[in-house]
């Protein structure tokens, strides 16, 4: 397990907490692997009826820790993207309903992680999107399918082409978010939804998730083809990461 992935079980529910509150809860390669393992293990616990994923502190997750990718070899970068996709797939394949509790930002791989969950509750000031093209990241079919299935192809293209982040109100209108609440009420609203889900028989919840997941077949097929092409344009990627980290240091 990773220090940046914490699992807490309590009764019929479990909570997966991302990061420690620093660096916008960006996750490294080992963290993504730990997240996948956490959900593979939670999938086996028949006592749990609902799982919440949230970030530590005031934000959900800004995605992957770009500091790992400075001077990283191409094979290491490809392996890191495969780890991200494996974690998202583990969430989708977990038979237990998963709720994302999102404050701050869910961007890049953090956006994908939120979209892999079954339901999303957003603070009113939260934002979501995929601002990754500028980094030389070549969007995978799995990443694109996850976004397009919820937002539609037109908006998915716009978000991927421009890197624009949606605010919570826009995300609700786009179908990416189930509930938008004042930031101060986020935890309570999530707890209310958790209670409503956990009150149902587990067998019914599992069946419902499996039935709805039939519609995810494009995402699953895209995930199966994930390794068919490179994840990044390597030279553009190295320039983009270096420029991004340089701007971050001077902000």
Structure description:
This protein is an alpha/beta fold. The chain has a single domain (5-202), classed as 2-enoyl-CoA Hydratase, Chain A, domain 1 (Alpha-Beta Complex), CATH 3.90.226. 47% of the residues lie in helices and 16% in strands. It is built from ten helices and nine strands. It has helices at residues 29-42, 74-93, 109-116, 141-151, 153-162, 168-174, 186-198, 202-213, 217-224, 234-249; strands at 5-10, 13-18, 50-55, 98-102, 105-107, 119-123, 127-129, 165-167, 179-181. The strands form two sheets. It has a six-stranded mixed sheet, with helices on both faces. A three-stranded mixed sheet has the order 5-7-8. Strand 2 (13-18), helix 1 and strand 3 form a beta-alpha-beta unit. The radius of gyration is 17 Å and the shape is globular. The chain starts with a strand and ends with a helix.
CATH class: Alpha Beta
Distance between the termini: 32 Å
Q: How are the strands of the largest sheet arranged?
A: 1-2-3-4-6-9
Q: What is the H level of CATH, i.e. the homologous superfamily? A: 2-enoyl-CoA Hydratase, Chain A, domain 1
Query: At CATH's second level, what is the architecture?
Result: Alpha-Beta Complex
Number of helices: 10
Strand content bin: 15-25%
Total of domains: 1
Spatial extent as radius of gyration? 17 Å
The count of β-strands is 9
Strand and helix order: EEHEHEEHEEHHEHEHHHH
Which structural class should the secondary elements be placed in? alpha/beta
Biggest sheet layout: 6 strands, mixed
CATH fold naming: 2-enoyl-CoA Hydratase, Chain A, domain 1
Protein name: Enoyl-CoA hydratase/carnithine racemase
GO molecular function: catalytic activity
InterPro entries: ClpP/crotonase-like_dom_sf, Enoyl-CoA_hyd/isom_CS, Enoyl-CoA_hydra/iso
Family: Belongs to the enoyl-CoA hydratase/isomerase family.
């Amino acid at each position: 397990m990773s220090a940046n992935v914490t699992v807490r079980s309590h009764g019929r529910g479990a909570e997966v907490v991302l990061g420690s509150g620093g660096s916008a809860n960006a996750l490294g390669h080992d963290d993504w692997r730990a997240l996948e393992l956490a959900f593979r293990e939670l999938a086996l616990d028949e006592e749990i009826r609902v799982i919440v994923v949230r970030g530590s502190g005031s934000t959900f997750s800004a995605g992957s820790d770009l500091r790992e990718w400075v001077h990283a070899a191409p094979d290491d970068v490809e392996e890191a993207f495969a780890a991200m996709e494996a974690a998202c797939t583990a969430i989708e394949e977990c038979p237990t309903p998963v709720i994302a509790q999102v404050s701050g930002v869910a961007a890049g791989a953090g956006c994908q992680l939120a979209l892999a969950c079954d339901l999303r509750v957003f603070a009113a000031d939260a934002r979501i999107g995929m601002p990754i093209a500028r980094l030389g990241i070549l969007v995978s079919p799995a990443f694109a399918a996850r976004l397009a299935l919820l937002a539609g192809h037109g908006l998915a293209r716009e978000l991927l082409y421009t890197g624009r982040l949606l605010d919570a109100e826009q995300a609700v209108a786009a179908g990416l978010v189930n509930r938008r609440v004042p930031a101060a009420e986020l935890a309570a609203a999530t707890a209310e939804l958790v209670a409503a889900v956990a009150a149902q028989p587990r067998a019914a919840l599992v069946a419902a998730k499996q039935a709805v997941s039939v519609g995810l077949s494009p995402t699953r097929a895209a995930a199966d083809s994930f390794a068919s092409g490179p994840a990044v344009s390597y030279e553009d990627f190295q320039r983009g990461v270096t420029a991004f980290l340089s701007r971050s240091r001077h902000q």
